[in-house]
Amino acid sequence: MKQRGIALLQVLLIASILSTLALFLTQTAQQQVYIATQFNNKTEALVKNYDLEANVLFGLLTEKKGFHSTLGNSVRENIYLQNFHGDEFQVSKEQYIRLQDLRGLLSIHFPNESRWFKVLQHIGTSEYNAMNFLRKTQDWQDVNTVSSYNLQEKSFKNGPIQSLNEWEHLEYTAEQKKLLAKVATIYKGSTFNPITAPSVLIKALYSKVISEQILTSREKNLLSPSLFTSITGELEQNKVYFYPSNDYKIELKTQVGEAKIKRVLYYQLNPRKASPVNLMATEG
Question: CA angle, corner 72, sides to 199 and 267, nearest 5?
Fold first, then answer.
């Protein structure tokens, strides 16, 4: 009886070990399947992201971006070109785009004092600090070491700003820098297109009544150059243009399962050149 009892315990012990091993192998197999699925989803999301990029570039290079009676009326049938002012739009269940005409942002290389002054005051900057910001930005980039106040510059680069992180020396808060980063760019010249400016910039540059009229008209796809002029009184002059440029910030987001891919690309396009696509920078 004693030997039978020992044998039974041995059988139970072996069965317990085998059950534990089987459970471990099952969990390992499930983990491997999950990892493999995630890898496949990541790869598929990346392929979809690059496919989305190709379609956006094709649209920008082949579709007209001028105006007829409404903003972008000539490209409304192309789902990849729904707006040029940075509002996110959905192409499919798994694909999202933000398309920002860089002409609709403020140049940090050639800061327009009037516009920058309005933006800085809009975020709560005092008149003195706003003017000081502009002076420091210009002094940082100019080719001499004498400040705008005819004093020796304490810090300078003597070259164009190549990253918005260079604002660190201007001692702005993280919140202010975050907002400024939404309205500024280092990838364009001094021209400006208020019609393709992001909503936050429209609100900074115009009164509440005027900005609401602009944004409401744009949301309804009614904002033509003539309507913009009738609302604001502004005309195309002094490097202000009402048509999209060929320089873009493109944000592409794709998702497959839990796998997400996000890339931000800065493109300079010229359909008439032998090399029509110039990738200036990437993020992500």
Answer: 75
Which tokens belong to 147? 């400040």
Mention every residue, 6+ apart, whose C-beta is less than 8 A from residue 5: none
- Torsion sign across C-alpha atoms 23, 29, 34, 35: positive
Buried b / exposed e over 224-262, threshold 16 CB at 10 Å, is: bbebbeebbebeeeeeebbebbbbbbbbbbbbbeebebe
**Residue 116 and residue 108 in contact, taking contact as beta carbons nearer than 8 Å:** no
Distance CA 163, CA 25 (A): 51
Per-residue pLDDT of the chain (284 residues; tens, 9 = 90+): 555 556 666 666 666 676 676 666 666 666 666 666 777 888 899 999 999 999 999 989 988 775 543 444 444 457 788 899 999 999 888 899 999 999 999 988 878 889 988 998 888 888 888 888 888 777 777 666 666 565 555 666 566 777 777 766 666 677 777 778 889 898 888 899 999 999 999 999 999 999 999 999 998 888 889 999 999 999 998 899 998 899 999 999 999 988 899 999 999 998 888 888 999 888 86
How, if at all, do strands 95-101 and 106-107 pair?
Answer: unpaired
What DSSP string runs through 89-130? EEEETTEEEEEEEGGGSEESSS--HHHHHHHHHHTT--HHHH
